[in-house]
Fold:
Amino acid sequence: MTYSSFDKPLKQLKVKPAKMGKYIKHNSPKERKMGRSTKRCVRCGRIRGLIASYDIKLCRQCFREVATKIGFKKFS
Structure:
């Protein structure tokens, strides 16, 4: 299960409201205050490969697409 798909079984639990309430209480992701998962890409929401220097806050894939528009040049 990925970090954002805790709500997949809710389709089956719609007919059982008591069990659904208990499931949501125990399985919903808690709000993070620190760590890796608090910082996300502004454009796509990825957690991994984040470039946070110079206050860019983009993942490396989005940075490659937007770098020339921001003003970075590719040297090679």
Q: What stands out?
A: The domain at 36-70 is CATH 4.10.830.10 (30s Ribosomal Protein S14; Chain N). The radius of gyration is 19 Å. The first helix runs from residue 10 to 13.
